[in-house]
Amino acid sequence: MVWTVVLGVAALVALLTRELVTVVLLTLVWLLPGLVMQVAGMVAPRQCHAFEVWWRARRIARAVRAAWPGLSRALDLGEVAYRTVKADDGARSKVEHWVPAQVWVDASPVDAVLTIRVPRGLSSADIRAKADAIGADLGAVAVHDVPAGPGLVALRCIFVDVLATARAWPAAVGVVAPVVGRGEDGSPVCHDWRTPTHMAVQGSTRSGKSVLSYALLGSLAGREDVAVVGVDPSGLLLGPWQDLGRFPGLIACGTADMGGAVDVLGHLVDVMDDRVRRLRASGADKIDVFTVDDPLLVVVVEELPGARRAVKDQGGTKLLAAFDSQLGRLVAEGAKVGVRVLVLGQRLSAASIDTDSRSNFSAAITLRVDSSEALRMLHSPDVAARFGSECGDWSPGVGVVTLPGAGTRRFRADLTSYEQYRAAVRLSSPADAMLGLPVSVHAPALRMVDDLEDAAGGAA
């Protein structure tokens, strides 16, 4: 910044004194860094990007370290120490001075993790109580407590509001571990369908739930070792998959015949039971190789609360009991034999998912909802306490995601359209039949233990 101002003033002086050659030379020097970066970006884009990332992280780290002494004094995060001062006449005296709490800064282009050693006279709780004040003084848009060792407190201060702007869905198809959004620290949010767990997604009307489901399912297009099936009262989400004609009897769209929806779940339970029998006969404890004959089954139940109401309206409590029983069995027994259940709803209360089944949905996403109770039911009381005050004001696509091994964090789903989703599904290669019937097209086997694709790289 200083160098730019000096060059600008020198060029202005040269222009006023009509030293045109000097003006031209100063202008070239002024533009030289930008020209160098442009050329470097064309010749070595990866290296140039890495340098830019490093430079931005360095600037954030330097700014935090420079602000820390004053911040620690203002918030009383340190201790008073004494040092001996010798006067000119040889007399010695003790002078008190402020010693800030020791801090380590690990920065990225969008955030910084401050690891603070708890000073004498304070506790970890004292420092955590001042987390918001620390973030405000540093200019952070959000502050989160992260795990740290004994005697330490780690705070993640986020300086760039990644969630303020939606990113376009990369439309990466044929990907089993799709990137569907970004966390508030800029890191990718990826759901790996190979993970033996089920997923639940909830959000009120216009919260972005449909857009998120397009990315979750559209990325599976083109894979003959994955079958997207299930029940969809609206017919919009599973309609494109039904149009492929690859899954006869395994997709029920619309509400005209909810008995047919129960039959679909019953057929899927039969497939699951057959796999369990084969698993026992093989002496293995799980199925981890899937082909076009035995695909990974992604069972979608769109708008679960509405589907249950429609089932009850048409067939009474007996048909509803059959619906709940079939879905409950898929959730409880299906993960080890390649069944992944995805349920969606405006609010997935205990009436929609019972307590026993809820524990199997270790992947959960909540977009905008009307109360913190919805967060508590689907995630945990801790998540409700952290985000309950803001969950009713989230923009479309903004919410919290809980994934196995990754905890819970805020994120924003990538933006896509229904037209993009339908176009992606059309890429699926048609086969004559599936699930044990003869087929004419065979895809490579999907092995759960293989690292088939780098999710972040595949969506770049």
TrEMBL record:
- A single Pfam family it belongs to is FtsK_SpoIIIE
Per the record, the domain of life is: Bacteria
**Which UniProt key words apply to this protein?**
ATP-binding, Membrane, Nucleotide-binding, Transmembrane, Transmembrane helix
The family database entries (InterPro entries) matched by this protein are listed as: FtsK/SpoIIIE/SftA, FtsK_dom, P-loop_NTPase
List the transmembrane segments.
Answer: 6-32
List of residues binding ATP: 203-210
Q: Which residues form the FtsK domain?
A: 186-376
Q: Does the entry feature the keyword Plastid, yes or no?
A: no
Q: Which SUPFAM superfamilies match?
A: P-loop containing nucleoside triphosphate hydrolases
- Record carries keyword Transport: no
PANTHER family registered for this protein in UniProt:
DNA TRANSLOCASE FTSK, SPORULATION PROTEIN RELATED
- UniProt name for this protein: FtsK domain-containing protein
- Which species is this record about? Arsenicicoccus piscis
